[in-house]
Design brief:
Elements: H1 7-31, H2 38-45, H3 49-55, H4 59-82, H5 88-105, H6 107-114, H7 120-147, H8 155-174, H9 187-202
Helix pairs in contact: 1-2, 1-4, 4-5, 4-7, 5-6, 5-7, 5-8, 5-9, 6-8, 7-8, 8-9
Pfam families: TetR_N
InterPro entries: Homeodomain-like_sf, HTH-type_TetR-like_transc_reg, HTH_TetR, Tet_transcr_reg_TetR-rel_C_sf
Protein name: TetR/AcrR family transcriptional regulator
Length: 206
């Protein structure tokens, strides 16, 4: 008779998988992907290391899954900011502020998502992450052009420039050598990033 997995067994497997993901996420939040060692994750999740590889083909697959989950949270927050009241330029400004302030409040995770050296599978997710932001910004820029609050321009190219500018502006302050200095004193940095991005987008000095 063929083995048939019971509902109880399926539930236990799903719970173990979720614990592995949650503990990996915790490790990345605390010390980046470099600190997420399989032995440590297994200990935190209270599973054998072999159990991890029954749920994920490789460490890279596990990290890619955690990267996707982390970026989905950030993209959701930016999307919420883009849906706030106001014209397109005001909504873009709110989204840029949301992105920057959240990054500075969680510098280790933000560094991991933006710039930490990672495996190729995770790097693929990073590229998808940047594209998702560019898609959101492009849509809003097009709305702004239609409204007249943003000058006529190549919306796709401008959205890509916005993503690059904000990411590169944050890399230094978020790097491991600077994270201990991340406090409310970074508010001027957020303002400077937004001023640069919005002046470049609208051509209006802010």
């Amino acid at each position: 008779m063929a083995y048939r997995e019971t509902e109880k067994m399926r539930k236990r497997k799903a719970e173990a998988r979720q614990r592995i993901i949650d503990c990996t996420y915790e490790c990345v939040t605390e010390g980046g992907f470099r600190s997420a060692r399989i032995t440590r994750i297994a200990g935190l999740a209270e599973v054998a290391t072999g159990t991890i590889y029954r749920h994920f083909e490789s460490r890279e697959d596990l990290f890619a899954e955690v990267f996707r989950l982390a970026t989905e949270k950030e993209i959701t927050k930016v999307t919420e900011a883009l849906n706030t009241p106001g014209n397109a330029a005001e909504r873009l400004e709110a989204a840029l502020r949301q992105f920057s302030e959240r990054a500075l409040r969680g510098p280790v995770m933000a560094w991991s998502l933006l710039a930490e050296p990672v495996d190729p599978k995770v790097e693929e997710e990073r590229l998808a992450y940047r594209k998702a932001y560019a898609d959101l910004f492009e849509k809003t820029i097009r709305h702004g052009i239609e409204e007249g609050c943003i000058p006529e321009q190549n919306a796709r190219q401008s959205s890509t420039c916005l993503v690059g500018a904000i990411a590169e502006s944050l890399v230094g302050p978020l790097s491991p050598t600077h994270t201990n200095q991340t406090t409310n004193k970074n508010d001027p940095l957020v303002d400077a990033i937004i001023r640069f991005c919005m002046q470049g987008l609208t051509g209006t000095r802010r």
